[in-house]
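Lay summary. Proteins are chains of building blocks that fold into shapes, and those shapes determine what they do. In this project we predict the shape from the chain. Here is one chain we studied, written as its sequence of building blocks.
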Amino acid sequence: MAIGKVPVVLYHYEASPFSTKIKNILALKGIPHSRVDVALAPPRPELSTLLGLPYRRIPVLAIGSDVYCDTSLIASVLERRFPPSEGYHTLFPKRKGGQRADTGLVKALSMYYVDRVLFQLAADSLPYTRFPKPLLEDRNVFFSPTKPFDLTQMTARQPEVKSAISSHLTLIEEQLADGREWLLDTEAPGLADISVHFVVAWLQHRQFRALHDVLDAQKYPKSLAWLSTVTAYIDGRQKTGASAFEDITGEQAAKLIGSSPCEDVSAVGFDDVEAARLDVKLGEDVSVEPQDSGKVPSVGKLIALNREEAVIETRGSTGDVIRCHFPRLNFSIKALQKVDAKL
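And here is the predicted shape, written in a compact code that computers can read:
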């Protein structure tokens, strides 16, 4: 589905909590889009074959022929490319009674505290012993390809993880103790609310039955009331139709993306100082991969680089050139010739 002449396409699967985070952001901002349902585990030919993008994390979002990886970058780009000045809701609302927004703080809270602390505790609470063997093997490769899961150890640790989640819920309750409506006492819900909400809401799913006594309304009344308020707000935004979506196939998406315009690369630019620090050069082939999990390299020609993102060109089976964007934080970028030399 296009905004003007530029289509927005979300690659997702229903069980992905991070996909839910981006769906909620699209609803909050009011951005119509198309969706491609991909498999829970690779291979995902919709990305790897058709777009030449082997990156294995989901979701992935395309705007025109620019393809964005990782929810941290997706959130920033949606705010920049669909700004409040054009009628879209903001992810960074101002504080009540003030004229300023805590943009950097919110990004850091979302990227580090929520995505890498709170979410990991939730993921550690999954009932892995009930997973089908192929799915368990895939999760093993995703998190630790050289070290097999020790299911006995993971299960034994879950009471400790449960206690840690209880402590984090106490922090959220403390944040809301003064009766504020939104987490950072803003004029409206923003990225901070969306980020914490998607993890706590995930914990309410039936697969986390062992945690349901932790989500105690008597211990965390303000947190659970806030959770319901955010859910109702997102549902209300979806009912307006502002973020209406249509389901399309991977082939349809690839054709749509490949035939669409890309953003002027000058919007990202090329920072020579940062490039020198990373020992990479404009126009050379580089490898980009996450530093923590899902460490599958994506290779292409480096065409833009700044302190927030790196952009490479890839080409899939359709023959169209695709621009793939990756965050700088929590991702590594290396010249391909140096990677090959080490091998």
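What the prediction tells us: The domain at 103-240 is CATH 1.20.1050.10 (Glutathione S-transferase Yfyf (Class Pi); Chain A, domain 2).
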